[in-house]
Amino acid sequence: MTKADSRDLRSELVAAIAMLAEPQAVAVPSLRSIARACGVAPSAVYWHFPSEADLRSAVLDAEYASLVEAVESALGSSDEADDQLVVAGDAYIAWGAAHPGAYQLLFESDDALPETRAAHGPRLQARIVELARLVDPAAPFAPALLLWSVWHGVVSLRLHKAEWNWGMTAQEANRRLVRALVANGTKAVDTDSRTTP
Question: Is the whole model's pTM more than 0.85, yes or no?
């Protein structure tokens, strides 16, 4: 093929980026690679897990549990005067920064885990809703989604854009964002509730 060909391959190659319109998989390492890392044959995995899907579910659930426990531990050891939303956010963000691969697997993959196999996934969600009652005791779900969005954004952007100068630490960002949510949260939720069918 030469530049004289009528086909505009350059444009086609650039346009092929459309395949990125769909989320790209972030997958648990394969059964074979996990077995290799443990120094055992792949067949040894089946003594402990009936299938690769069961192993994947156990990995994801263990990571959810680790994140929830990090948040709970931080809350449990904080001073009563500490802002619980800030403490929880700092713990969530710190866990994500310390476990980047696990964080991506939990929250940047479209591979849904069946609810029956993820006891700690719903546990994390329930804990965030409970914390959001500090913003709006009567209707905590909307501020819970905002809290999670904020914390996820801080973690995800810093994982993927580590070279950027953010102008503040992740903890400073968390404090500013939590303060803004608390200051405006109830008003925003009231407005949303009037416009939601």
Answer: no
